[in-house]
Amino acid sequence: MTFRLVVVAFLMLLAPPAPAQNAAVPVPVELPRLQAGEPVLKVGATGARTVFSPADLEALPLHRVTTSTFWPADDGTYEGPLLADVLKRAGLGDAAAVKATARDGFSQVIPGRDWTRWPILVATRRDGKPMAVRDKGPLRIIYPRDMDKELHDTIYRLRWVWLLESLEPASP
Does residue 8 fall inside a structural domain? Predict the structure, then answer.
């Protein structure tokens, strides 16, 4: 009997830990506010854009999510407002889709069904610290990948736009 207990205990040590239930669900968080700073995000159509500084973005309700990514070095904890809240503040809450464009010109269309289905972040921080350009910041689109197996599909890979600079209405 003792031998069995030792074997069972040993096997339990070898087993991977179970993931925390709902670990990828963004939760509300309070963070020290950033300084106003330069505008970092333009949202809306040309001529009718809302411009956000880091402090403007962080004046919206903030959330935190710990999630895996398609790039293991980028797995971690991210904080920022929900994409849905940013779009709503800029008058695009009912948009069918938005085109997210990065500083380097990369762009990707994010359908409205994504931000109505999942709590996608416009991350302003990683592990509580503002992200520098060299760290793919200052803004990144972060999907709560571990919340839903569907988000592991490669179709979502390109929607994780980093160096985010603008969001504008688009066709889905």
Answer: no
